[in-house]
Every structure is written in structure tokens, then in C-alpha cells.
Design a protein that fits this description.
The protein is of the alpha/beta class and 569 residues long. Helices cover 21% and strands 38% of the residues. It is built from nine helices and 49 strands.
Length: 569
């Protein structure tokens, strides 16, 4: 547990000691659904054992829980939640007001665990968290942080907030129903985190809430929702549009609506944070014309509420000290320019921008992050989310352009990453480490240098580079992988769409070098302008697989296959 988590955990302990530990609420941790064999039950049991959870709740022993479930023959568990009738019976039998429900589903190549805490008396979802994993060993290490996030969230006062019911997902155009429903559950979790709405459980899993969003009624003492979140997933070619709108159930008017799109299920997971914040529609704007006003804006953002969107409009070029946003909740921070502006780094060795978990930073039009050749990386995505837009640039970082780690995500929708170096190390333009991802949809990575992976370096299990578009060109590696270098079992690089790798150079693998991990190309171009001493545009160390000729749009490559079956020569 890191220092920040220790502080939060310690604060929780002090608060509950002051209130009296005997007053802890009982919690029924239901069997988690999905997974293989007893995976769901095993994870549910491990979750119930976490000290972070036990500080706030008193989990009901699994034996007592299983007996109660077996006695209630009408229990119908679906999508990680249960029917209202069964909730009432189980709550009465177990003497509990709260239930933890979990769902394990597969999105793309990853497993996703979604945990929700339900107040069964008020029929309200009071907390939740979501994480991706590949093996049981991975999820064991993540459960304590999930429990910590959930218990902190559960302490919020939801009674004064507008009541929001999440309607079933509407599908069109062949959208995958399982993926769409899982993303809607994730969206509901992030809506709770933002603290603007009191969220009712997913309606497709509660019999009491019919599918018609204009006829949502409750019985007994449960207050009816004021609003409903209507979601539609629409498949358009290779892209799925995920449209969401909040509807006022009294006036039947739309309060707010927004839309995101994704190509892969993994991409969809990361877009839900942004969509939830847009739907929360809480924004604050700042204008910064010098280092003092910029630092003041950052200080205010760090102190202010989670669940808000912040925009800093830069008007002029100036040097700023290293910026580290505070992870005290989910926030979206957009930095854009009133006119072409450069934010240079005034510190010799600090990271220019640090983006921790919970923070989404968007670098927009007219802004350049200039490293000034300082001994630092330009952007450290340390568990958070970073989006680079058209008209933005990252240049001159002496220790690389963008580093993505600790489960962070970087999406390049446009812009330029240029002239960054990583002397005696890896990844001049972008470095992607374990359990993190880089999605390139557009833009240019050019003129960056390193020993390995001049343009992009991908290393470690769960490290992904998803290249759907854009260009990696003119980058140089003194050893291997002028354009892209992939290393580590479980690391992946997929190339598709309009992606292009051109004009890079290295001693080996001028375009792409695969030390270990996997490379799959189903589209895009790796052309002959990639220069290399060994003559290979693409080189795969395992099996000595080579590609010397152009790999065009119709040339598929797969490092897991041999000879012509994998596209090798």
C-alpha cells in the first residue's frame, strides 16, 4: 500500500474508532458471477477478507451466506445483481442492509471485475469499482485498493442527491449486447464516483424497474427516481457509438446528453470515465497568462471537488515548474490555448506533467509542452488518463515524451510527439509499461531517439500499443526498433486501419522489432523507407522471423505464427 493509500486507510480507521467499531454495518458479499469454474466465488471470498473492507463493514461469513442463498429458492442472480424479491428475503434472513455484488466478464482479451455495493433498503447503489486483469494472481493484488476505493465512496451522503435510475442498454447496428451492458455497468460506477447523483442499481437486473424508462415506479418506502440514464450502443462499421442521455422523469425532457465512440472493447472501458464526467456536467474554467496564474489554477483544481471538469486556457508562452495533479477523485482537466502557446519546463529534473489515477488530462489545440532539454519526461501518465488532441505538441523531453505506467492510459487523437530523447534507455517518443495502454488513432510521432524503440517502446505483461491510425515516422533507435519495440511476455502491439510506420531507422528492425510479446497487423502500412542495417523492416527475435518487403494494407502479420502463415519471408 503506497503512502497516499496509507493516509486514507488510517483516516478511515480513526473515524470509525471514534464512532465505535461495534456500529459497523453488516455486508453480504454475494457470489461473484462469471469467470471460469470457482473463480467468482474465490474472488468474492478474498474480497470479503480484505482489511480495508473490514474496517468499515462486518462481512457475513460465507457459510451463513451460502445457507441463506440455498434456502431462498427464488434467488435469481444476473449480471452481478439480484431481483428485488430475492433481495428482500435475503436481507431479512441475513439481517443486513448492504450487499456486495460482483460480475466477471471478458471484454476483448481482458477480464473485467465490476463490484457494486447495494443499499437493499433504499434500493440504491452506494459504491463500486472496476478493474481489468488477466490472471487470478493479478486480481489478488488489486482487491485491497478496490476495497479501499469502495469503502471511501460508501461514506458519501447520497440522500440529498437527485435519484438516477440506469435504464437497459438499447442496441442497434449489431452492437454486442454483452459488451454494451458491461460498459453500462462501468458507467454507473463512475457516475456514483462523481457524487452528483444517487444511482439506482442497473435496471436490467431489478425486476421492479420495467424496461420502459417513462414508467419507472417503486413500491413501499423506496423513493422513486427523479431521472433516468438512457443508453444506446450503435455499431457503425468498425466503430461503436455509445450515446447516453439523462432524462427528467417528471418533465420527460433531456437534461444532458453526450456520446463517445470506441473500436475495441478495451478502448470502451477507458471512455466510460470521460462520459460519466461529461454527464455530470460540472465545469470550472481558468485563464493563465503567466506561471503564477497557471500554478494558481493547478492549486485550485487539486483542492476542488472530484467529479468536475476543469479547463485551463493558456494565453501566452512561459516556463512552469513540474505539475502534479492530486488524485482526490475523478476529474477531467483540459489544457488548451487561446493562441499558439508554449508551456516549457523550468525545473531541471522534475516531470513536466504527472497524471495519477483518477485524473484525465486533455492537451488541446494551440498548446506545446516544451521540455527545454531538461532531465525529465514530458508527461508521466502514472495510473491516470491522457488524451492528446489535434493542434497539440510534446517536444524536447530529454528523458522521453510520454511515459504510461501503473495501469495508465494514453490516447492520441491527434497532435505531434517530436524531438524527445531517451539517452541510454528505451522509448524516445512513448514508453508503455506493465498493465498500461497507448491507443493511437491519429497524429504523428516523429524525430524521437532512443537505444530501443525510437518512436514507441512497449514492455511488460499487459502493456498494449493499439495503433488504429496516425504515423510513426523519422524516429531513430541506436540498437533496435526504430519505429516500435516490443518486449516482455504478455506485451502486445496491434496495427490496423490507416496506421503507417515510415522512415524510421535502427541497426535491427527499422520499422518494428519484437523481442518478446506479440505483434498482430491486420491493416496499415510498414513501408520500405524504414532503414536498418540487417535489411529487415520487421524482425521477430523468437523464431528469427523477418519481413524485408513492404507490408501494405492487405499484408497481415502475426508474430505468433511461422513462415508465410504469419506473413514472414
Amino acid at each position: 500500500m503506497n503512502t497516499g493509500k496509507r493516509i486514507i486507510f488510517g483516516a478511515l480507521i480513526v473515524a470509525y474508532c471514534a464512532a465505535g467499531l461495534a456500529a459497523k454495518d453488516r455486508l453480504a458479499v454475494m457470489p461473484f458471477l462469471g469467470g471460469e469454474g470457482d473463480e467468482g466465488e474465490a474472488i468474492a471470498e478474498l474480497f470479503s477478507f480484505t482489511p480495508e473492507l473490514n474496517v468499515v463493514f462486518e462481512p457475513i461469513p460465507r457459510t451463513s451466506l451460502n445457507e441463506a442463498i440455498n434456502a431462498e429458492h427464488q434467488t435469481q442472480i444476473s449480471q452481478g445483481l439480484i431481483t428485488r424479491e430475492s433481495v428482500d428475503v435475503l436481507s431479512e434472513n441475513l439481517g443486513t442492509q448492504y450487499m456486495a455484488c460482483g460480475k466477471i466478464t471478458r471484454l476483448g482479451t481482458q477480464k473485467i471485475l465490476i463490484i457494486s455495493i447495494i443499499d437493499v433498503i433504499e434500493l440504491r447503489q452506494i459504491a463500486g469499482d472496476v478493474t481489468a486483469y488477466t490472471e487470478i494472481a493479478d486480481i489478488i493484488t488489486k482487491l485491497p485498493s478496490m476495497a479501499l476505493a469502495i469503502t471511501a465512496m460508501a461514506q458519501q451522503n447520497f440522500s440529498i442527491l437527485p435519484r438516477l435510475a440506469v435504464a437497459p442498454v438499447e442496441l442497434s447496428g449489431g452492437a454486442d449486447p454483452e459488451i454494451a451492458d458491461a460498459l453500462a455497468q462501468i458507467l454507473a460506477v463512475y457516475m456514483i464516483r462523481n457524487g452528483k447523483y444517487s444511482v439506482y442499481p442497473r435496471t436490467s437486473n431489478i425486476d421492479q424497474i420495467p424496461e420502459r424508462t417513462d414508467d419507472i415506479l417503486f413500491q413501499g418506502n423506496v423513493a422513486p427516481p427523479n431521472m433516468t440514464l438512457s443508453v444506446r450502443a450503435r455499431r457503425l462499421g468498425a466503430v461503436t457509438l455509445f450515446n447516453a442521455a439523462i432524462i427528467d422523469l417528471v418533465t420527460m425532457t433531456q437534461v444532458i446528453g453526450s456520446s463517445v465512440d470506441y473500436q475495441s472493447p478495451e478502448d470502451g472501458i477507458w471512455t466510460m470515465k470521460s462520459l460519466a464526467l461529461r454527464l455530470s456536467a460540472m465545469t470550472t474554467t481558468y485563464t493563465a497568462a503567466d506561471a503564477v496564474s497557471f500554478s494558481s489554477a493547478v492549486e485550485n483544481i487539486n483542492l476542488n471537488n472530484a467529479g468536475w471538469e476543469y479547463t485551463v486556457t493558456v494565453d501566452g508562452s512561459f516556463a512552469i515548474p513540474g505539475v502534479s495533479f492530486t488524485a482526490n477523485g475523478e476529474k477531467v482537466i483540459t489544457i488548451t490555448g487561446a493562441s499558439p502557446s508554449i508551456l516549457s519546463n523550468s525545473d531541471e529534473s522534475s516531470v513536466h506533467f504527472t497524471i495519477p489515477g483518477g485524473i484525465t488530462m486533455i492537451l488541446g489545440n494551440n498548446v506545446t509542452l516544451g521540455g527545454n532539454g531538461k532531465d525529465s519526461v514530458a508527461v508521466d501518465v502514472k495510473g491516470g488518463t491522457f488524451i492528446l488532441k489535434a493542434g497539440a505538441m510534446i517536444k524536447g523531453g530529454k528523458w522521453g515524451g510520454v511515459m504510461v505506467r501503473n495501469g495508465g492510459s494514453f490516447t492520441m487523437e491527434g497532435g505531434v510527439i517530436s524531438g524527445n530523447t531517451k539517452v541510454n534507455s528505451n522509448g524516445g517518443g512513448v514508453y508503455v509499461s506493465k498493465d498500461s495502454r497507448f491507443i493511437m488513432k491519429n497524429g504523428i510521432i516523429t524525430g524521437n531517439t532512443a537505444d530501443y524503440g525510437g518512436g514507441v517502446y512497449v514492455s511488460g505483461s499487459g502493456a498494449w500499443f493499439i495503433m488504429e491510425g496516425g504515423t510513426v515516422s523519422g524516429n531513430t533507435a541506436s540498437v533496435s526498433g526504430g519505429g516500435v519495440y516490443v518486449s516482455g511476455q504478455g506485451a502486445e502491439f496491434t496495427m490496423s486501419g490507416t496506421a503507417a510506420i515510415r522512415g524510421n531507422s535502427a541497426k535491427s528492425g527499422g520499422g518494428v522489432y519484437i523481442d518478446s510479446g506479440r505483434f498482430v497487423k491486420t491493416g496499415g502500412v510498414i513501408d520500405a523507407s524504414n532503414l536498418q542495417a540487417d535489411g529487415n523492416l520487421v524482425f521477430v527475435y523468437t523464431g528469427n522471423k523477418k519481413r524485408k518487403s513492404v507490408a501494405g494494407q492487405n499484408a497481415d502479420l502475426d508474430s505468433a505464427k511461422t513462415e508465410s502463415a504469419g506473413g514472414w519471408e
